[in-house]
Amino acid sequence: MPTVARFDLTMDVKEKDIIARAATLVGTTMAAFMRTAAKEKACELLDRESRITMTAQDFMAFTKALDGAFMPNAALQNAMNIAREVKRA
User: Is residue 74 part of a domain?
Assistant: First the structure.
């Protein structure tokens, strides 16, 4: 049996009426309607935020950078040198 958590929500009368009417239209309870709507919105938001969107020009620059030879800058080269020295010690 899945774990159940409680979530209380306060809303004004007009909001409750709108949700009650919508729940009735789809043939479900207000609680089920709210759970479904909230979950759908949350999944949509999380899905959207997990992707990177860029222009075609940005994508070309990105893939060119990935395909190019890697040249560490001075700070990274210094960090790699220090890491090698620590590893030898």
Answer: yes
